[in-house]
Write a structure and sequence with these properties.
With 288 residues, the chain is α+β, with helices and mostly antiparallel strands. It is built from 5 helices and 17 strands. Helix content is 19%, strand content 39%.
Length: 288
Amino acid sequence: MGIRKLGYVGIEVTDVDAWTDLLVRTLGVGVTHAKSGADEVVLAELDEFKYRLALHPSTEDRPRELGWIVDSPSELDRLTQRLTDAGFAVADGSTEEKELRGATRLRWFTDPVGYRVELAVGEAKVRLGVERPAGGPGVTGLGHLVLASPKLGELRELYESVLEFKLTDYRAPGLFFFRCNRTHHSIALANAETASIHHLELEHGSIDDVGRAYDRAQAHDVPISISLGRHMNDKAISFYVRNPSGFHLEIGCGGIEVGDDWVPHDFGRSDEWGHHHADANPFAAPKS
């Protein structure tokens, strides 16, 4: 398959300092700074690669780019042709953009919602040695993202039919989970009136790492938007915090892997236990 994994997410944010404080003090993530045009960008190191989350200063909070790692240049060309055949205009990334991402090749297009989606070949495996404030393994990578949109059908067509993601499972009528590797899902698509990132999941090494992050979130008065719980479908144990841009960060571990013999199915309810929402849950099943 051409797309190997979720590589990075870029976000335009109005309060870089608040984001940095959340990442460093509560989540134990190391951050560095880099130039992007005239701006200084905050890069969050989640694993051994250069960055997984880029924070760009802005006058409004919104997604900037969603980056997927592609297996090879030939696969990038093949996916480019599939996108072109499906009516998407594909452009090359600039030299500066490739350098920031650590990519050898970079192309991008605009999805049906208006988000910039990038396909990158290559990653820069260069930890800059920033201190992990929390110690221990803590955050180990970028797990998945969930996009909410009124254009669910068009997004499903893009990811499933054009980019060749596989459907893992779903909750009828409006929540679908897709994978591009053995991880249960790298992206989920949900029906909603307004387009947004519902959440990003930061993968942690163990339940102890999740628990320590939970303690730090409470100690630092970080809004816990969804309490500790275990999901029904991927079996991950996690909790969610509300970040300074207004959407959720899921702090989780223990999601399952699936193989080619997996049969997509409706998994019925969201959670085995826990995951109580501090506010309204837009994906909750209607009460009977």
